[in-house]
Amino acid sequence: MTETPTFRSDITVELVKHSASDADVLFAARVSTAGEQSLEEIGKDPARSKGLINFLMRDRHGSPFEHNSMTFLVRAPIFVFREFHRHRVGWSYNEESGRYRQLDPEFYLPGEDRKLVQQGRPGKYEFVPGTAEQHALVGKVMEESYRQGYAAYRELLAAGVAREVARAVLPVGLFSSMYATCNARSLMHFLGLRTQDERAAVPSFPQREIEMVGERMEEEWARLMPLTHAAFNANGRVAP
């Protein structure tokens, strides 16, 4: 492993495994009226299938959207995961452990397009771009802090201090990795809260870094389940 701190502003999301398609929604919904023959109905009438998915979304019949699975590998700053883990229903997580391995010195720096300045009060505020001087200051101060924190971490490890104790000096801007598994219904709930979109019936004001994760997950999901994704957007991006 490298012991020289590195800095990045991107976040990576990789779809590593899935069993997810619009057909999963259709057979689950039609079993209520067709029984075991619901599997035979999937490919018969595409227009009818699209209408059924839209009906389920519009009238919030949510359980048919749970019969699928997507597993993502996410690499992001620790502070993103602390927000992410608030989403518990329909999600499973496994994150790399600072107890069992020495953590790599990879740290988050906001990109030039990251808005830095908060105006207004909680519940009624907005973020606006920072000045060039503010961006330079953020980069300088964060890098210095990260370097000091990781040097302290290495010093403790070299002295024989346990990893689970030494990690306490590391900042939440450190990158971590996790597997996150969800179904379409739980992902829709996540996206409704953690992304901004003009089609949303209920406005959301997520932190930009977790929104970046949501955007990448949504790209993969839209490819796997295009009818479900379209119905989600057409009905205000509200999870059924």
Automatic annotation (TrEMBL):
An individual GO BP term: methylation
GO molecular function: thymidylate synthase (FAD) activity
Cofactor(s) this protein cannot do without: FAD
InterPro entries: Thymidylate_synthase_ThyX, Thymidylate_synthase_ThyX_sf
Signal sequence range: none
Catalytic-site annotation from UniProt: 194
Pfam families the record matches: Thy1
Top EC class of this enzyme: transferase
Cofactor remark from the record: Binds 4 FAD per tetramer. Each FAD binding site is formed by three monomers.
Annotated catalysed reactions: dUMP + (6R)-5,10-methylene-5,6,7,8-tetrahydrofolate + NADPH + H(+) = dTMP + (6S)-5,6,7,8-tetrahydrofolate + NADP(+)
EC numbers for this chain: 2.1.1.148
Pathway per the UniProt entry: Pyrimidine metabolism; dTTP biosynthesis
Binding residues for dUMP: 83-86, 95-99, 167, 194
Keywords: FAD, Flavoprotein, Methyltransferase, NADP, Nucleotide biosynthesis, Transferase
Residues the entry annotates as binding FAD: 63, 86-88, 95, 183-185, 189
Family, similarity comment: Belongs to the thymidylate synthase ThyX family.
Function as written in the Swiss-Prot or TrEMBL entry: Catalyzes the reductive methylation of 2'-deoxyuridine-5'-monophosphate (dUMP) to 2'-deoxythymidine-5'-monophosphate (dTMP) while utilizing 5,10-methylenetetrahydrofolate (mTHF) as the methyl donor, and NADPH and FADH(2) as the reductant.
PANTHER family in the cross-refs: FLAVIN-DEPENDENT THYMIDYLATE SYNTHASE
Subunit-level organization: Homotetramer.
Protein name: Flavin-dependent thymidylate synthase
Organism field: Streptomyces johnsoniae
Gene: thyX
